[in-house]
Amino acid sequence: MVAALTLSGCASFQNAGTQMSTLGGLLTPHRIDVQQGNVVVREQVQALQPGMPRAQVQAILGTPLLASAFHADRWDYVFTLVRQNQEPQQRRVSVFFAGDALQRVEADELPTEQEFVAALQAQRAAGRIPALQASDEQLRAFRERHPLPEARPEPAPVPAGTFPPLEAR
Predict the structure, then answer these.
(1) Region 34-60: what's the mean pLDDT?
(2) pTM of the model
(3) Which candidate among 34, 105, 142, 161 keeps its CA 20 to 30 Å from the CA of 121?
């Protein structure tokens, strides 16, 4: 019983922390876009032909993300993109060799270059833009809550010659 109450208290505390960090759900923290791996588009994979040497495959697809010493005849190109308010994108392309010649390619459904660029430029869901100008009533209410400190008189100037000299004469 005590354990159940303790655990439910932890969940409530975690939810309260989330609510505090987003100011009651009104604001959300900015999350940067995270891109990892190689961008491989449909046109690149279509340019590959069986029998191509490794150097030519690398010229088309770039350096593989994974090239294992235990699987010397396989290169893996993995791409992930995580953006705020969008579904994460993940794609994989595996290239298999027989000696130095390309044997086959296995790939997820890849976008064309044009589709990929359009997905990057997709506008994020626009929220309500707050008013950036305060009304006279809002300014008056702010001044009532935060009055200006009273002006203090300037201190009297200190007459010259009352301090000891900085250097010996």
Answers:
(1) 90
(2) 0.54
(3) 105
